[in-house]
Amino acid sequence: MNRDSRLSGILHVLLHMAQAPGPVTSEVLGQAMSTNPAVIRRIMAGLRKAGYVRSGKGHGGGWTLSCALEDVTLLDIYKALGEPTLLAIGLRNDDSRCLVEQSVNAALSASFAEAEALLLARFGEVTLADLNKTFASGYDGRIGLLAAHAGHEHH
């Protein structure tokens, strides 16, 4: 089963961007994330629309943060990504006539809703600044975005 890793990936990208001295191109971000630059542009478009990043064209252009890390939570970024599905498990049949399956569905649905509510509440408590503090304590400023992903460990 494939997992949706966009939230994890974009948080990774945003923290790199916070350390970058200037704009970072979609090509550089795509290479760093081992994905096509078009994928980066598509994901970043939602963040731009929400006001968290901006982009510049031409020589010296690229993506930059347009928000304070303290003001943006994981929940904000999750919403800007279009609120991807949080849980990989689901119901076998949403509209069953079987009373046993209806009972199972009711119990599972309530549990799923509770788990999602707890997760979203936690997302709302963690800011990008919190993540950046954890990351920055081990960051070596001499390792650039590409160098870090070309073989230097930075996690």
Automatic annotation (TrEMBL):
InterPro entries: Tscrpt_reg_Rrf2, WH-like_DNA-bd_sf, WH_DNA-bd_sf
Domain of life: Bacteria
Gene3D superfamilies xref list: Winged helix-like DNA-binding domain superfamily/Winged helix DNA-binding domain
Matching PROSITE patterns: HTH_RRF2_2
GO annotation, cellular component aspect: cytosol
MF terms (GO), sorted A to Z: DNA-binding transcription factor activity
Name of protein: Rrf2 family protein
Organism for this UniProt entry: Devosia crocina
